[in-house]
Amino acid sequence: MREIRIPTPRGELHALRCRPGDSEATGSPIVLMHDSLGCVALWRDFPIRLAEATGREVIAYDRLGYGRSAPYPGPQPSDFIEQESASFDAVRKQLVLDRFVMLGHSVGGCMAVEIAAHHADGCEALVTVAAQAFTEPRTLDGIRKAQRDFAEPRRMARLATYHGDKAEWVLRSWVETWHSEAFAHWTLDEALRRVACPTLAIHGEHDEFGSLAQPRRIAALTPGPSEPTILPDCGHVPHRECPERLIDAICPFLDAPASA
User: Start and end of every AB hydrolase-1 domain (predicted)?
Assistant: First the structure.
């Protein structure tokens, strides 16, 4: 496991590279994209477990404004999901990622879709976990409930443990962006239709931020399985709630000839 810094025009990114034990990694590396309140540290031990199970290198980075990366220079723009492709340009060049797999959780899954569409020359497979394909009341209701929970000082203190003095910006960006006029009719459809690689949409049965219509839309508009993989008795964070089942769903997909 190795920590690195990646320079970008807007500030440095913090990243983590995990290899499968002492063995040589095989296959293209997997790049993880975190959720709206997430960061590298909040993946916990999932990156190393995924590396061990797949035999691939796993790379996770803190988006600008999150975790140990530099602060975001100003308010988060309404097209922040699409714009993440620009940050990934720097990650790809710095780490010399010729071929790679994208795996994103929640809004990180949306970003993984945009990156897969924009970097079709290198992205050989895409996995979305609890991703949103469009704005729905369930998503907004879940965010409002979480915002009320963060009125509890201990909850904000915990968020600051991972994001430092950027914690208020992280929370505000999440709440305000999804409730903005720009997101009232937002969909991921255009990017989904441009994805050329095999795609696996995974979703928890009881995801509090998105109905099963979300992964079904992703599966319907991308190459790969026509139906999503639904994890029973699981909510919005499979990599913490049921990491073994999540990895068991990912491995056969990546081992399939079309994803090799």
Answer: 29-239
Q: Which domains does the chain have, with CATH numbers?
A: 2-259 (3.40.50.1820)
pLDDT digits (tens, 9 = 90+) for 234-258: 999 999 999 999 999 999 999 986 5
Q: pTM to 2 decimals?
A: 0.96
Residues 51/31, Cβ–Cβ less than 8 Å: no
pLDDT in tens, 96-123: 999 999 999 999 999 999 999 999 999 9
Q: Which two tokens stand for residue 256?
A: 């399939």
